[in-house]
Amino acid sequence: MESAVQIVLIISIFSLTVIFVTAGVWVVLILREIKKVLKKLGKVGEDVEETAHFVRDKVKEGFNMMTILTGVSAAFFEKHNLADLLSKFEKVKEEIKNRVGEEKEAIRETIASVKKEIKSKKEKKSKPRFFFKGKKS
User: Fold this and answer.
1) Of the candidates 105, 71, 64, 72, which has an alpha carbon nearest to the alpha carbon of residue 90?
2) How many folded domains does the chain comprise?
3) In contact, 114 and 47? CB cutoff 8 Å
4) Residue 135: inside a domain, yes or no?
5) Residue 54: which residues within 8 A CB-CB, separation 6 or more?
6) What letter would DSSP give residue 134?
7) Is residue 129 included in any domain, yes or no?
8) Is residue 124 helix, strand or coil?
């Protein structure tokens, strides 16, 4: 009777050991995948930060243009020559249109490139790998 109990205990200890080792290996594999995902998220965060800096610089340039316009308008109003004022105003207006168009295009290109990067990163998502691989049906 005692030998039968000992055999049952040995078999149960062995099977529990196999189960716990398997679970431990799965946990290690899952943690590796989580580490990879976190690295990818960090890279996406850096890309977003770079885009934010780019947009911030463009906004600063816009405020610099407003400062220039304020100075130019003050200079215009000091001169009382209306014809001269209108011609200079048209030149400044065209210059502003050109600069705004260039900045819009640069921002659109940057946004498009960021969208492409995000799309490519989404497409390259790695599928989780498991310890036991079964047949795909």
Assistant:
1) 72
2) 1
3) yes
4) no
5) 107, 110
6) P
7) no
8) coil
Residue 133 inside a domain? The answer is no
pLDDT in single tens digits along all 137 residues of the chain? 789 999 999 999 999 999 999 999 999 999 999 999 888 888 877 777 787 787 777 777 766 777 777 776 666 666 556 666 677 778 888 888 888 888 888 888 888 888 888 777 777 665 555 555 555 54
State the Cα–Cα distance between residues 21 and 106, nearest whole angstrom.
55
Summary count for the chain: helices (H), strands (E): 2, 0
Looking up tokens 């780019």 gives 54
Opening angle at CA 52, ends 47 and 54, nearest 5: 95
Domain that holds residue 81: 2-123
**Residue 87 identity (one-letter amino acid):** S
For the full predicted model, state whether its pTM sits above 0.70.
Answer: no
Tell me 1's DSSP state.
-
* CA dist., res. 104 & res. 110, Å (int): 10
